[in-house]
Amino acid sequence: MRYSGWQVLAQGLLGNGGWRPAWRDPAPKPAYDIIIIGGGGHGLATAFYLAKEHGLTNIAVLEKGYLGGGNVGRNTTIVRANYGLPGNSEFYSHSLKLWEGLEGELNYNVMHSQRGLINLFHSDGQRDAYTRRANAIINQGDDAQILDREGVRKLLPYLDYEQTRFPIFGGLYHPRGGTARHDAVAWGFARGADQRGVDLIQNCEVTGIDIENGRVTGVQTSRGAIRAKKVGIVVAGRSSQVAAMAGMRLPIESHILQAFVTEGLKPCIDHVVTYGMGHFYISQSDKGGLVFGGDLDFYASYAARGNLPMAEHVIEAGMTLMPMIGKARMLRSWGGIMDMSPDGSPVIDRTHIDGLYLNCGWCYGGFKAVPGSGHCFAHLIATDRPHEAAARYRLDRFATGRGLMDEEGTGSQHNLH
C-alpha cells in the first residue's frame, strides 16, 4: 500500500478499515544469507539498503523485543551535520543528504523538519572554536553561519541574554539541521525493508553466535538456531554483551542518557537550541511538547532509566538559559542506553571473525546517523569494503592509537563524550 493524501482521505471516509499491516510478521527460516542483530533504526536501515542498493533479500533482522523499541524510539530526535573533524564531517554530511531525500525514498512521512540548529557560545574561546568548526563545515560543503549576539537575539528572543556568569556572545547557526519523528524513521525503514523481501523477526533474542574455524556460521536465538553466511551486530548499548557471545571485548561502555518532554504548548521554539555552558539542548515537537536533554548520568548501566540528580542538573541548565521553561509542566522522562566509545566516534568495521561485522559506538550521534549508518554498514556487509564516508570508523584505532577522532578535544575516555 502506497501512502498518499488521497489514501488518507479515502480511508477517513471509509472508517479507516482498509489499512493493511505495514510489514509482515514472519517465522524465522532455518538459514539466511545475512542476519542483522538489532531491529532499531540502524539495523532496519542496514537491511533496507542491503535490499535496495545491493539487491540482497535473503536477510533477517532479529529483534529481541519489538521493532524500534530501543534508542531509536527514545531520543531527542535531532538531525544535523555540523561536525568538525575529518572522518566525522564526511560521514554526517553523507547522512544528512540521505535524510533530505528519505521521505520520497521510503514513501513514508518521517516528519523531517529542517528548522535550523543554533549552538550558543559564551566566551571568546568558544567563539574561536565555533568559528573553526564553521569553516570546517563549509569546507565540507555543508552550511554554517556565525551569528553575533544580536543575530541570535533576532532568532531566539526568549533567551536570557543577561546571565551574569555565562552571557550569550553569539551562536553557530546550521540552517539544514533540525529534527525528525523518531518512531516514524523506524517504521519507514521497516516497511521499506519488508517490501523488498527482508524478514523482520520480533521477539527473537540472540543468545549465542556460532563460529567454526574462525568464521561465523549463524546464531542461536530464543526461537531456535538460524544459520547465516554473514552476521551484522548493530545493537547500540548492548554491543558489548552481544559481541561477548563471539568472544570479543569491545572498547565500549554503556551509559544512560536521560531525556525529558513537557506538556504540549503553543509553538514557541522554532529551532533546535544548544547551550554551550550547560550541555542542554531543546526543541519543540510537532505535538507541542518541549523535548530536551543534557549530560550522561556518568556511570555505566544497562538500566533504561536515569537518576534524579542528573534530571535536576539538566533542568537547572534549561532554567538558566531560558527561565520561561519553568512555567511548563514536565510530562515524562526516560533513559536511553548509550554505547560510548573512548574517542566519542563510532565503529563500522569488519571484525577478526570472517563474516562478522560490527556497528557501534554512536555516543550522542546515533539518531542523526541512522540513514548514513545503514547505508555504509550495508555497503561494508555486501562488498567487504568500507564505504568512503565511513572509511575512518575502524575498530583497530583503539588498539593502535592511530586515527582516533576526539571530536570534543576532551581526551580518549568514554564518559567525557
TrEMBL record:
MF-aspect GO terms: nucleotide binding; sarcosine oxidase activity
EC number assigned by the record: 1.5.3.24
SUPFAM superfamilies noted in UniProt: FAD-linked reductases, C-terminal domain, FAD/NAD(P)-binding domain
Catalytic activity: sarcosine + O2 + H2O = formaldehyde + glycine + H2O2; sarcosine + (6S)-5,6,7,8-tetrahydrofolate + O2 = (6R)-5,10-methylene-5,6,7,8-tetrahydrofolate + glycine + H2O2
Catalytic EC class: oxidoreductase
GO biological process, one term: tetrahydrofolate metabolic process
Example of a GO cellular component annotation carried by this entry: cytoplasm
Subcellular location: Cytoplasm
UniProt cross-references to Gene3D superfamilies, sorted A to Z: D-Amino Acid Oxidase, subunit A, domain 2, FAD/NAD(P)-binding domain
Keywords: Cytoplasm, FAD, Flavoprotein, FMN, Nucleotide-binding, Oxidoreductase
PROSITE patterns, alphabetized: RHODANESE_3 (PS50206)
Family indicated by similarity: Belongs to the SoxB family.
Protein name per the record: Sarcosine oxidase subunit beta
Species annotation: Roseicyclus persicicus
